[in-house]
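Dear Dr. H.,

I hope your travels went smoothly. While you were away I took the liberty of generating a structure for the chain from your last submission, since the lab meeting agenda had it listed for discussion. I wanted you to have the full record in hand beforehand rather than looking at slides cold. The sequence, exactly as received, is reproduced here:
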Amino acid sequence: MEKQYPVYTLKNECNDCYKCIRGCHIKAIKIQQGSASVINEKCIACGHCVKVCPAGAKRVRSDIDKVKTLLIAGKKVYVSLAPSWAGVYNIPKERMIAVLKKLGFAGVSETALGAQEVSIQTAKMLNNAQKGLFISSACPVIDDYVRLYKPEFAKCITPVASPALTHCALLKDMLGEDIKVVFIGPCIAKKNEADEHPDLMSAALTFDELNYWIKEEFIDVENIETDESCHFVPESSYEGALYPIEGGMNETIKRVGIEKDDVTFIAVSSLEDFDKSLQNINPDKVENKIFVEALGCSGGCINGPCLSSDKSRILITSDIYANTQYRNEVPKEPRKVVEIEYIPNPVEKLEYSLEQVSNALKKISKHSEEDELNCSGCGYASCREFVNALIAGDAEPSQCVSYMRKIAVRKAAAMLRCMPSAVVIVDSDLQIVEANDSFEHMFLSEEMYEVFTSRQDGMTGACIDRIVPFPELFKSALDTGKEIHQEHYAIKDKVYDISIFTIEDNELVGAVISYVTKSEIDRSKIAQKAREVITKNIATVQEIASLLGEHMVETELLLSSIAEGYEGANKGTNEGDKK
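The corresponding predicted structure, in token form, is as follows:
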């Protein structure tokens, strides 16, 4: 069975806005047939594309059924509950635990317990270190970002598992190796951790998934009953509950105790800021002792992609601090350490020749530096970055807004130019926006034609009432928003077929006009000839009738109907037009 990655796209819902590409710091998204899909081998499951997608086309893999399968199988399944829950859910811990146990979990424990062990181990490492750059391993987004995109810094990640994995290992030590542990929190990347370490973490659910599951089971969160069993196992956490807040890990490490005042603590949140913080640093030449608490989400885990809360970050932070207790004395040795080596796995950076780049630029009508607008409409920061993706097969020419606009303008201009009928577009001020050659030839005198064709903008800006003898039709279409169709519209000795249609309500209308005067004259000539034929044939018929003694009425009626048909049609048209 093919592995399903944490983030995927509902192709039918994707609206070609490229917002996910703009929001993806590592550009792990490709466009195929107008639909944006995740490049799994490049994705670090930060979830930013899920947050910014206006159509909801970016989705997160649901692992609810996986967890249900464990429960149905009779496994003892415990929850590792992320500390950010205290800021998200406005209910006491007893009720939160009761809800989770109602879903079938054997017990609930706080991920913050693992965070405390990580802090103790990290403080111990910093105390024993001489110098160097140290990057926290708490955030799986940061861990994968460094391994894939900043491999030279992989050795700087502290070789200890994340708080969630450490907590899973701690629970198995305390409650038995046969138990299963499911993480629940705001993080999508935890699903990658569960996939990579199934021996420790059986599955990872987001708060969004939890809320869906609660609704699915019709659990009344506000009125659920609690009892003495509704407490965290094996114990409640302390300062580790600060981890989801930017700077929280640094604070807990300081509480553990740094023996010398020789460590510089820095907190960085968001991939963009983390990337900038590593610029111009050679990790082998750092002479100071620097510890960087790095988190993938701006502001920390309290701004995770699946936080499932409309509360302000300030209130969430305040609630987490209010629910955090502190120990008077923190142990110097951790109860559990899970050592992990973060091995570099750099994404291949493809380099393209100047000729390849030049040819790709030409495909989107970029023939000079002036043509490279770098507007970011395609989702990339520059035209050069876009064509690199184009060559790699991760992008399509249609993403370039300026290129598609040029194509559209050229197609429209070609159609207008080749149409035998007159075409004109008029704005709300009754000024011409666009007109084709047929319109100019149909309505401009020789003097006016020379004036307008000599202008750079042609007829653009000219008032329609100065050009055509029926401006009231355009005004009516603009005012009412209704289409107008006039066949055989007679003005003096000229006859037109006119169709006026709305392009933008009350703002822009277009018209297709055909000159049909000649065809009407032809109809009159046919009627006249038919009358002449009737007159000549009547004499002949009378002569024949007198000789043969037959009546000529039927023949006369037949010929008369031909002439009257033409005359009547022509007369009716003129009268209708006058009306």
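Two observations you may find useful: The radius of gyration is 39 Å. Residues 548-552, 572-579 have pLDDT under 50 and may be disordered.

With kind regards,
E. W.
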